[in-house]
Amino acid sequence: MAERTYKTFTDFFPYYLREHAKPGTRQFHYVGTALVILIALWAVFSGTWWALFLMPVAGYFFAWVSHAFVERNKPATFTYPLWSLAADFRMFFLAVSGRLGPHLEAAGVRTGSEADSPAA
């Protein structure tokens, strides 16, 4: 089956969530995204600019591990790199704020109490 071509981020985001249907996949992404944010803050506030090169390593390592061993699918970043990056941060901040559940449900992802929180 041919992969659909998405023209807008609004159309892409539900697809992104379906590609992250398992709570474990999302939790790995949350760890990677949190590390990216922490590394960026550390680099800025300490002046350790070389640390910025660690950001993609931290983010992609956890994401790719989750897709290989939890979700068992191809990361969306290979097809939609910029939208995947934006969607990852959107998913992270929706989860941290407790507002991810309705987005998952609208995308057709079955949720449980553990699916809506990055701490689960």
TrEMBL record:
<keyword id="KW-0472">Membrane</keyword>
<dbReference type="Pfam" id="PF06127">
    <property type="entry name" value="Mpo1-like"/>
</dbReference>
<keyword id="KW-0812">Transmembrane</keyword>
<feature type="transmembrane region" description="Helical">
    <location>
        <begin position="28"/>
        <end position="45"/>
    </location>
</feature>
<dbReference type="InterPro" id="IPR009305">
    <property type="entry name" value="Mpo1-like"/>
</dbReference>
<feature type="transmembrane region" description="Helical">
    <location>
        <begin position="51"/>
        <end position="70"/>
    </location>
</feature>
<protein>
    <submittedName>
        <fullName>DUF962 domain-containing protein</fullName>
    </submittedName>
</protein>
<keyword id="KW-1133">Transmembrane helix</keyword>
